[in-house]
Every structure is written in C-alpha cells, then in structure tokens.
Amino acid sequence: MKKNRKLDDRTTDIPRLKGKSYFVLFLLIGILLLLLSVAASISFGSASMSLTTAWTAIFKFDPELTEHQIIHSLRLPRTAADLIAGMCLAVAGAVMQGYTRNPLADSGLMGVNAGAAFAMAVTLAFFPGQLQTTTLLISFIGAGLGAGLTYLAASLNRSGMTPQRLVLAGISFTMLFGAMGSFISLNYGIGRALAYWTSGSVAGATWTEIKLVIPWVLGGLALSLFISRSITVLNLGEEIAKGFGQRVVLVKLIATLAVLLLAGVAVALVGPIGFVGLIVPHIMRFFVGVDYRYIIPASAIYGGALMVVADIAGRLINRPAETALGIIFAMIGVPFFLLIASKERRAIK
Amino acid sequence: MNAVKSYKATIWMTSLSILLLAGAVLSLNLGKMSLHPLEVFQVLLGQGPEEHHLVVYKFRLPRIVLAMLVGFGMALAGTVMQALLRNDLADPGMLGISSGSGLMVLLIISTVSIQGAAMTLLLPSMAFVGGLLAAVLIYVLAYRKRRMISSTRLVLTGVAINMGLSALSLFLTLKLDDQKYDFAQRWQAGYLWGDKWSYISLLAPWVLLLFAYLYANFRTLNVLVLGTEISIGVGVAVKLKFLRLAIAAVGIASGCVALGGSIFFIGLISPHVARRLVGNDYKVLLPASALIGAILLLAADTIARTVSFKADIPAGIIVTMLSVPYFLFLLMRSK
User: Fold this and answer.
1) ipTM of the complex
2) Is A65-343 CATH 1.10.3470.10?
3) Using CB atoms, which residue from B152, B163, B327 is nearest to A333?
4) What is the per-residue pLDDT across A262-298, written as a single tens digit (0 to 9) for each?
5) Could you count the other beta carbons within 10 Å of the beta carbon of residue A69?
6) Residue A187 is nearest to which of B155, B310, B327, comparing CB atoms?
7) Looking at the domain B2-333, which fold is it?
8) pTM listed for this prediction
9) Residues 133..192 of A with a Cβ closer than 8 Å to B: which?
10) A186 to chain B: closest CA residue
11) Which residues of A15-37 are buried (b: 16+ CB within 10 A; e: fewer)?
C-alpha cells in the first residue's frame, strides 16, 4: 500500500482510484476548513472582531455600526477575492498539469503572468491613476495576450502543439515581456509600484471587482469540470486517448481556454502568484488519486482555503504591516518543491 | 566528411573572430560624444587632445572589453552547463547563481551604507560569493550518497532554490528607497556596471584560465553529453569530472555576474546559435559559442550606449529583446 503512495502516479502500474464515499468525505472536510478559514479571515485584522459581530454584520447588516461597515466594505470583499483567486489558481494548475502531463506545470508557464505584468507596466507608465476596475480589466487583457501568443507560437509548427513546445514558448514570452516591462519601468521610474503589484496583494479588493469577475470564474470552473473526465484519459497518454476515440485537439483547446479564464482572473485580482497552482493539485492527487473528476473539485475547495489562510498569515506575521502573498507562498512552496524534486523519477525534457 | 567539417568550422571561427574585432572597432567609434574615426585612431597612436584620450581609454575601451569578456564567459558557462545537465534549456543561472548573487547584492546595498572604495570592492566580491554559495546549496540538496548525480534532480532543486531566493530578494526589494531600488533593478536586468580597468584586470585572467581548463576537457564534454552510462562505459570518471567542470562553469558565471549583472540569456542563446553554425563537437563548439556570446553582448551594449533612451538601459534588456524572436523562430522550426 505504502509503495503505491508515490507522488508520481505514472510509476504505478494501475492508476489508484478511490471510492466515491471517501472523496465525498474529503470534500466535506475541505468545505468545513474553508468555512472556518473564511470566518477567521473576517474576524482577524488590524481591528479584531468577534465571530458574532461578523455573523450579525453579514446577516443583519446595520450601516450605523463602524464594525459592520469595516466587515462589509473591506473584510468581506477581501476574503471573497482570496477565495476566488485560490480556487482559480488551483484549478488552472490542475488542468495544466493534467493535459500537459507535466507535474511541474502551472498557469505561470502559459505566459499569463508575464503578459499581465507587462500590461500593468504599460498602464502605470502611460496611463497612471486608473481606477482599480480598469487596471483589473487591463491586466486580464494582458494575461490573455500573453497566453494567446504563447499558444500561437507553440502551435505554429508543422508537427502541431506539444506540451514541451508550449513550455518553451511560455519561457520565451516570459523573458520577452519581462525585458520590455523592465525597459518601460526603468524609463518611467515605476519600478517600485510595479514590484508592489508583482508581490501579490488582495488588500484593495472591492465588490465591483468581485461582481465583474464572477461570471468568468464560473465559466472557467464549468469548463474545467466539463472536461475533467477527458483530462483523466488524456493524462494516460495521447495515443491511448486517441484510442478511446477522444478528440484530443478539442480537449486541449478547451483546457487552454479554461486555464486562460481562471489564471487571467486570478492574476488580475491578486497579481502574479505562483505556487498555489503547483502545490494544491499535487496534494490533492496524493489524497484522492489520479482521477481528475475528483482532483479538480477538490483543488477548487482546498485552493480557496489555502489562499484565505495564507492571506490571514500575511496579515498577522508582521503586524501592523502586511507581508506580501508572494512571499508567504514561497515560504510554503519551496520546501514542498524540494520534496517533489527528490521524489520525481521521470526526466523532464 | 571530417575534413569538410573542420574546414567549415575553421571558416566560421575566422569570420566570428573578424566580426568581433570589427565590432569592437566600430563600437569604439560610436557613443554619445561623437568622435571621428580618425580622431580615435590618433588617440590609439598616442596623439590627439587630452579629452579624447579620456573618452577612449577611461570610458569606451573598458566598457567594450568588459562587454566582450562577460559575453564570452557567460556563453562559455552556458555551453558547459547545457552539456552537463544534458538540457538545451539550461543557462548559467539555473544552478542558483543568478538569484544567489542577486540576493547578496540586495543584502549589501540594503544593509551597508558605505560608499566609495570599500563599496567598489565589496559589491562584486560578495556577488561572486553569493553565486557560489547558492550553487553549493543546490548541489548539497541534490546530492545522494552512492548514487550518480542526476541532472533532473539538479534542475528541479535549482528551480526550487531559485524561487526561494527570489522571494527573499522581493522581500528586501520592497523595503529599499528609490535610488537603491533603481540600482537593484538595473543590476537584475543585466547592467555592465563594473567598467573599470581595475575590475577587468581581475576578471580577465579568471575567465581566460577557466576557459583554458574547459577547453582542455572538450573530449570529456563530448562524451558526457552522450549520457552517464555511455560515459562510464568509455571510462570517464563521471562524478569527478562532472563536479570539476561544474565548478569551473559556476566560477566563470559568478565572476561575470559580479561585474555584469544577470545576463544569463546570453548563456542560453549562444550555444544554440553556435550549434547551428559549427555542429556538436565541443572542440569547436566551446570557442564558437564564447565568441558569439562576446559579439552579442558587445552589440547589445553598443546599442544601449549609443541610442539615447530616456534612461540608461541595461544591455541585458536589449540582449533579451534581440534574441527572443530568434529563439521563437528556432522553436517553430524544430521537429
């Protein structure tokens, strides 16, 4: 039994599938954790509030009370942004790892983060003082541009798109956008403002933004769930998937679209944060097995919870200053990554 | 067939050398203050007015020599790294040198506030040490007793350590004031800031000596690329040779990064270009790749020096902008 518990699922002969009841239980525990972390996120902060205050603020909102005002206009949207971003990043990472068959893939490799960062550099340099909603849209468009160019460059080849080529194209565009971004930021002296954005923060999230991104998030999540079964098959190998009569190209296209939607929303909300998309799917695979019909919903729940917890930690570690999310995740992610590196058997080409 | 190959290689090596020399002469004549080629020639002969001497010997020539030296070294380190890790995407920064030296530079400029002579020595030496330390850390973490060195494990460990060190750097960056931040950002982008003769006289023998060592080992490299099993079969002491060559490559890269900032893309791109020109034999591939690196960085730095952008743009940015399109082109052509 212990022998089968390897992070690399493909070294085992038969994919490990666990029962549905086990999965439901795991998911319920996740939802419980999520609710607890959300409650904690609402009550912790520079002004601590009891859970009952938080409860009444949500269900019996009284605009006269300052505490209710704080919860309603600051804490709640912030927690919602954490939740959404965590879900999006984790699911995007799971889909990405599934269909590229690369355990080290995450949405940052698609050029999403680099594109968004470049769009932010352009905005800060040439159109400063934008509303937060506008910057959100701009970085989303930048993310789309980055992913689109990466996908295009990877598929403009006679032998079609391969996962390796996608990763290479992603690295190239990340370098190119990075160079152009630092060119602009040096020329216009916006380096520090850009660094703050890059380090990741949800501090300024508002309801307007949340409402704006919700439909895209739901669309992306629905697409991911819709193709989760196909990804499980595709993960066994492209030839096998074709043998099962799967339309591989179509599945890849839908998967790319889902990753773009989810990762684009996340980067626009909280900035380019790595790790969540890399770590969460790995942990989920460890617990629920290799079936992406299980991995994707579990990633959504636990990804959201992890992000909320990380944000609480960022608020508490260095009070009253806040520690950037990017740094918190690096602290969690690096040891984990080292663990994967020592377990990994297969060569990465 | 071998004769044809070596003939072709000789032609390429000669033309690359001529190109580099011509580039250096051209670059000497270009700059923000326009000097007539004749005036430059006069200075080189020891004639002409004092200020022309100043421009040529104090500003242009050291910068040109540094650009060539750093480009040469980075490309060399990249070529060896790609051979050792057997990965076409390896660059000299992969084993932690970029983030290690970057973090060290940030630590120095954010904690120490001395200026002048002490700083000019402290900064490059600490950048050098930081690069080496990160490489040692990665090697120790990836090391397994009684097992061969696995390039996959090295690469993965390198990615992890690079991420962690970059996060620490980000943490420090957010606390810098504007002026220091500007320097840190420039350094990260690959800025040839150490253009003083005193620095160059330290870096030049270092790079050339290690180049001589690597070149003497081209046969080992030729075998190591074929894989660990074959190398052992042919009778190469893989673990020992791997370690020595890796130390040499890391040493060169750390030296270059200390004076030139993070210009690692040169190390990624030059071996690719060289392989297309002269083939896979490290006897010609090593020097060809190094020459291409020198030419690339010299060209990029000449553009950075000559074209007036609003700010002083680091050469590394121009290198990336010039070479990414070529890299993408290679990607589209590859099978």
Assistant:
1) 0.75
2) yes
3) B163
4) 988 888 888 888 778 888 888 888 788 888 888 999 9
5) 14
6) B310
7) ABC transporter involved in vitamin B12 uptake, BtuC (1.10.3470)
8) 0.77
9) 153-154, 156-157, 159, 165, 168-169, 171-173, 175-176, 178-180, 182-183, 185-189, 191-192
10) B311
11) eeeeeeeebeebbeebeebbeeb
